[in-house]
Structure formats: C-alpha cells, structure tokens
Design goal:
This protein is of the alpha+beta class. About 35% of the residues lie in helices and about 20% in strands.
C-alpha cells in the first residue's frame, strides 16, 4: 500500500547503499539546517521569513509569516508557511 512506501524506501536505501539515516542526521541538526534553508529561500525568492509564535496543530510545528523582502507595510505580506518536519501518524479516533 502507498503508506508503506516510506518504510520500504528506507529499507532499500539501508541495504543497497549501506546507509544509516540516524548517522547522517547527526551531521545535520534541525537547529542548523532550518535557518540555513530559510536563508537560501529568502535570497532565492526575494522574501523574508518571520517566525510567529502561535499555537499550531503540534508544539513542534513552526509558523512563519512570509513578507516581500523590502516590504514597508502590510501590502508586502505574502502569506504563512508552516514547517512540520516530523512524520505524524493519523490520530486514532474512537467512536462511542
């Protein structure tokens, strides 16, 4: 099934490339990668990301307001960007 894809993809990479995701992640901590990627996007797209401390669907989700790079007022507002870096399973629901 489609939801099994990530599992089998990871297994394939581990076996064919002899690559361990956990070891690779040690060299790319989220606290360093996210600001770097946002900086690249800001330069590439001519925008500015401003983190917004609002409640989201999960405490680990980051919310950013996106502005045109040289915005002087609210007309330069582009929209919001949510960054949810961790896979989440479907919430289990019980029917009473």
């Amino acid at each position: 099934m489609i939801w099994d894809y990530r599992y089998y993809d990871r297994k394939f990479i581990e076996q064919t490339l002899d690559l361990d995701d956990a070891l690779v992640k040690e060299y790319f901590p989220v606290s360093v990668v996210v600001p770097t990627i946002l900086d690249i996007y800001q330069n590439l797209l001519g925008v500015r990301f401003q983190e917004v401390k609002e409640e989201t669907w999960h405490p680990d989700v980051q919310m950013f307001a996106v502005w045109e790079k040289d915005a002087k007022d609210e007309t330069g507002f582009v929209g919001y960007c949510y960054l949810d870096l961790f896979p989440r399973g479907m919430l289990s629901r019980s029917i009473l």
